[in-house]
């Protein structure tokens, strides 16, 4: 009798326990929790003209004016230039990482001075630089006819990873599988023998985890052709962070890491892309805290002193109201922050 009871009770307890853990994890990640890194005033950012904020950022921290913004393909150029330049004295290997904050409006930078924990401030304090860049293909025209690509996620990251715009890489929107050519840096740096291995860390399934995902073809290609490129998706941003940190803990960590965090994009879609929205600010603080943990992990590497790291923080697009994709300045204006000089 006891045995029979146990036979029934044990599976029920197991199901309840697993259900509780999975349910709790999903609930925690899908509901709003204010960032513990929120600063005083984050819940009451005053409404201000967008271009006025951009002008306030000119000189500090931005090295250029918003009218001088460079196309977002500059990310590609910077990574290529980094790996192609000679090793500085005392360094034995080159490494690079892109920490992408999806849908992060550049006017959030007005909140950098009050940050308690900030990846961007860390790079700038370490002698880094920041510039205005833009998404959407051509500079500043708000006329839809002259915008060569949508200010959407897949076109934006794809332009940074291939160095060309949608007319050449074919990614005019999300849910389009990119042809193998032009290859992204994830593949080309390894195939060209510039690095030994690369890794792509995300939580958004639209990058390479669905059959209609942008890099679904590249992921298959890497597998079929033995390219040492890892395509790794977590369910949520904390998982992306864990995956990056565990890579960085390895003595022979990936030489090129490309990652995106969804905090700002998800909250922007849910509640509005604007610094006057405390939930959007909170998401920015979370992204910044994660970015800082990643930078700290790089600096904690035993071989850090002999490694020449390029660390970039950037975004794929801004946002307008609860969305993006269009040609407004709010959606088009983006940024690059680097631990190195940018405009040299
Ligand atoms: Zn996006």
What does this protein structure show overall?
With 344 residues, the protein is of the alpha/beta class. It is built from 12 helices and 8 strands. It has helices at 2-30, 50-57, 74-84, 119-125, 153-162, 166-169, 185-191, 216-224, 237-249, 263-271, 278-299, 329-332; strands at residues 70-71, 93-101, 129-134, 198-202, 229-233, 256-261, 307-314, 333-338. Helix 10 runs antiparallel to helix 11 (278-299). The model has no long low-confidence stretch (mean pLDDT 94). Bound molecules: zinc ion. Residues 102-103, 153, 265, 316-317 line the site of zinc ion. Zinc ion binds next to loops.
Explain the layout of strands and helices.
Blueprint: H1 2-30, H2 50-57, E1 70-71, H3 74-84, E2 93-101, H4 119-125, E3 129-134, H5 153-162, H6 166-169, H7 185-191, E4 198-202, H8 216-224, E5 229-233, H9 237-249, E6 256-261, H10 263-271, H11 278-299, E7 307-314, H12 329-332, E8 333-338
Parallel strand pairs: 1-3, 2-6, 2-7, 4-5, 4-6
Antiparallel strand pairs: 3-8, 7-8
Zinc ion (ZN) binds at residues 102-103, 153, 265, 316-317.
């Amino acid at each position: 009798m006891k045995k029979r009871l146990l036979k029934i009770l044990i599976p029920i307890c197991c199901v309840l326990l697993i259900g509780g853990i999975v349910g709790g994890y999903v609930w925690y990640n899908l509901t709003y929790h204010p960032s513990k890194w929120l600063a005083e005033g984050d819940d009451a950012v005053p409404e201000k003209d967008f271009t006025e904020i951009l002008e306030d950022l000119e000189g500090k921290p931005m090295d250029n004016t918003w009218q001088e913004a460079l196309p977002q393909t500059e990310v590609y150029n910077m990574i290529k230039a980094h790996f192609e330049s000679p090793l500085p004295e005392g360094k034995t290997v080159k490494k690079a990482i892109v920490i992408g904050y999806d849908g992060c409006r550049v006017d959030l930078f007005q909140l950098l001075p009050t940050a308690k924990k900030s990846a961007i401030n860390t790079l700038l304090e370490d002698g880094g630089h920041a510039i205005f860049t833009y998404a959407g293909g051509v500079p500043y025209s708000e006329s839809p006819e002259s915008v060569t690509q949508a200010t959407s996620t897949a076109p934006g990251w794809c332009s940074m990873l291939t160095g060309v715009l949608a007319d050449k890489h074919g990614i005019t929107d999300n849910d389009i599988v990119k042809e193998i050519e032009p290859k992204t840096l994830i593949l080309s740096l390894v195939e060209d023998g510039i690095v030994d291995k690369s890794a792509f860390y995300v939580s958004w399934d639209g990058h390479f985890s669905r059959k209609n995902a942008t890099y679904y073809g590249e992921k298959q290609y890497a597998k079929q052709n033995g390219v040492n490129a890892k395509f790794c998706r977590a369910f949520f941003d904390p998982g992306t962070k864990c995956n990056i940190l565990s890579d960085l803990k390895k003595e022979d960590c990936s030489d090129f890491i490309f990652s995106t965090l969804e905090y700002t994009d998800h909250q922007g879609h849910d509640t509005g892309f604007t610094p006057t929205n405390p939930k959007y600010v909170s998401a920015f603080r979370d992204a910044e805290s994660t970015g800082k943990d990643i930078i700290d992990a790089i600096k904690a590497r035993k071989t850090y002193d002999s490694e020449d790291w390029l660390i970039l923080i950037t975004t794929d697009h801004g946002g307008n109201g609860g969305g993006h994709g269009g040609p407004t300045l709010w959606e088009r204006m983006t940024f690059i922050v680097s631990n190195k000089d940018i405009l040299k």
